[in-house]
TrEMBL record:
PANTHER family: GLYCOSYLTRANSFERASE (PTHR22916), UDP-GLCNAC:BETAGAL BETA-1,3-N-ACETYLGLUCOSAMINYLTRANSFERASE-LIKE PROTEIN 1 (PTHR22916:SF3). It comes from Marinobacter sp. MMG032. Residues 1-153 form the Glycosyltransferase 2-like domain. InterPro entries: Glyco_trans_2-like, Nucleotide-diphossugar_trans. It is an enzyme of class 2 (transferase). GO terms for molecular function: hexosyltransferase activity. Pfam families: Glycos_transf_2 (PF00535). This is Glycosyltransferase family A protein. Its EC number is 2.4.-.-. Gene3D superfamilies: Spore Coat Polysaccharide Biosynthesis Protein SpsA, Chain A (3.90.550.10). Keywords: Glycosyltransferase, Transferase. It comes from the Bacteria.
């Protein structure tokens, strides 16, 4: 369980673990350089816990590096699960997923959907992350070829799942997955601050590990100010958001070192270009009034994608509208502070 300034969530996290119907577990807590002094609270909660609790503190490096540090302490276990301290496992989570791994010996990784909940109000935002939050239609990965074995859908074509993961979410994150330790011991978690789960999944699939999923919701994903991503940003948040997406691009480019399969390499380049042009260039910079940075970012992407008609059209229109966009953003800023 990686933690970073999550002291207020620790009681809920331990409550979730105590309520698991599967109780044969050990907990490794990796403190990623917290500044909210969680150790006193952790000791109190650990003293109320029958299972072994190990605490490791390290310098801040992001969730990827925290999980990688914990990875070294769990290599002798049979199954491994990563618990995000601000989420909540429903009581049958471990029992359900470990049970499927025990039953289906050829499966190495099993995951389930989350229910997304607004932490402050308790309102459900998405009943199941296997369905689109807006249209409520099933996500595309559920249409991929698979074998049905009881509750589990075992993916049969790993390369198809890699391409799907690059194109649209399949929502197989660390927080809603259980792994065989043989998989965890073979693939090192990268030290990315974002996108480490995407890289890890692709690496596992390309090495031939088998992935399956069940449709039952067993995880509550709490949405709060510290984990939500928003395109309508304040100006002082824009550069932070750009850094996050730049790190995601780095994680995606890292996938190119894992394979020589041309469709996968092409899709990685396509996704990186889209993130840089649309998310960073247009949504973050252009929409928030950083006109010069927006045009510069779009142009750099366009140089590498000179035949992309949507990029060309948007870039040319943006050049024409640049003076108006700049003045409009200045007016919005003046009205906000006036």
């Amino acid at each position: 369980m990686p933690i970073y300034n999550r002291r207020n969530f620790l009681k809920q996290a331990f409550q979730s673990l105590h309520q698991q119907t599967f109780q044969n577990w050990k907990l490794v807590v990796v403190d990623d350089g917290s500044t909210d002094d969680p150790l006193v609270e952790l000791r109190s909660l650990a003293n109320q816990t029958l299972q072994p609790v190990t605490y490791l503190k390290k310098n801040n490096g992001g969730p990827g590096s925290a999980r990688a540090a914990g990875q070294k302490l769990i290599c002798n276990e049979e199954f491994v699960a990563f618990f995000d301290s601000d989420d909540y496992w429903l009581p049958d989570y471990l029992q359900a997923l470990i049970g499927e791994l025990e039953r289906i010996q050829e499966m190495d990784w099993v995951y389930c959907p989350c229910r997304r909940v607004d932490h402050e109000s308790g309102k459900t935002l998405n009943e199941s992350t296997f369905f689109d939050e807006v249209s409520n239609k099933p996500l595309g990965f559920r249409r991929l070829d698979h074998l049905r074995d009881g509750h589990t859908h075992l993916i049969t074509n790993n390369n198809e799942l890699v391409l799907m993961q690059l194109k649209e979410p399949i929502n197989a994150g660390f927080q809603n997955s259980v792994f065989r330790a043989t998989l965890i011991n073979e693939i090192e978690i990268p030290y990315y601050r974002i996108g480490e789960d995407r890289y890890f999944l692709v690496a596992a699939l390309l090495k031939g590990f088998r992935v399956g999923y069940i449709n039952d919701v067993h995880v509550i994903y709490n949405v709060h100010d510290e984990n939500i991503s928003d395109t309508n940003l304040k100006k002082n948040d824009v550069e932070k958001a750009v850094l996050v997406q730049t790190e995601l691009c780095r994680a995606l480019r890292g996938i190119k070192r894992l394979t020589k399969i041309r469709p996968i390499l092409t899709e990685v380049d396509h996704q990186v270009a889209n993130i840089r042009f649309w998310l960073i260039g247009y949504n973050y910079y252009w929409q928030n009034g950083f006109v010069g940075k927006a045009l510069y970012t779009m142009l750099k992407v366009l140089i590498g994608e000179p035949k992309n008609l949507r990029f060309i059209k948007t870039f040319l229109v943006s050049i024409i509208k640049a003076p108006i966009q700049y003045l409009a953003c200045c007016k919005r800023s003046s009205d906000t502070h006036g």
